[in-house]
Amino acid sequence: MAQIIDGKKISQQIKDELREQVAELKANGKEIGMAVIQVGSDPASSVYVGNKKKACAYIGIRSESYELPEETTEEELLALIERLNKDERIHGILVQLPVPAHIHEKKVIEAISPKKDVDGFHPQSVGALSIGQKGFVSCTPAGIIQLLKRSGVEIEGKECVVIGRSNIVGKPMAMLLLRENGTVTVTHSKTKNLKEVCKRADILIAAVGRPKMIDASYVKEGAVVIDVGIHRNENNKLCGDVDFDSVEPIASAITPVPGGVGPMTIAMLMHNCVESAVMFDE
Which ranges in 42-117 belong to alpha helices (H)? Predict the structure, then answer.
């Protein structure tokens, strides 16, 4: 029986630690502010934005919400970001993606000051991570490192295989595992003998974007399996990239979907926002 890595519990621990830290900062006259921008009314985005606001309220971060209509122009959005970049009361700026098709996502990401880039998507943040400098790290990979560490999983010296090479998960995940002295292989849709490569992994991280693709035939006995995917199956139930029922009996530890990686992303976003406020003072 695999250890079930409980993302809800671990994310709650992190939020409680941040809540204490924020209370301490407030006692010393420092209030933390985060701006959340949503363009249009995509239902999934609205749920995410709502969860982020709730987390801010719990931790004690003041959140400013900008719900802009679908027809907002790129110029208007960039002007708002520029104003928030200059606002000293705001420590984190978050634009909920995706944005409507007439707005260039790349321009939006690059417009946010790297000092307030709590999502960790700005090219400067990504560059800092790749050469080991200080900067914000994309929230999902940062959350996965916390899941592993707080579950007692040793990364140093382990064979780590990441399935997926996206800018938001796969690439930063590989760099963070390297930073923890893991031996890292990044696989993707063009990888030959994918199963054989995955079966070498002591730690397997699935961010492939295909429901239940990773079954027991990809997993070495005793491996730790982290499932980044989130999908709805034919019965409208949430599932991940990993076929949990097939993999769980042979893994030593595994994250469920839901309740694994998901809650960690918001916890790490809050962590980045608090970090931003602390960094400004240095």
Answer: 43-59, 74-86, 105-111
Tokens at residue 13, please?
């621990």
pTM of the model: 0.94
Q: For the chain, how many residues are written?
A: 282
pLDDT (tens digit per residue) in 225-249 = 999 999 988 888 999 999 999 999 9
Q: Express each pLDDT in 153-182 by its tens digit.
A: 999 999 999 999 999 999 999 999 999 999
Let me know if 52 is a catalytic residue.
yes
Q: Residue 135 and residue 177: Cα distance in Å, rounded?
A: 16
d(CA 184, CA 176): 10
Active-site residue, selected from the candidate residues 117, 119, 202, 243: 119
Domains of the chain: 30-114 (3.40.50.10860), 139-262 (3.40.50.720)
Cα separation, 149 vs 129, in Å, equals 19
Q: Which of 38, 96, 158, 243 is catalytic?
A: 96
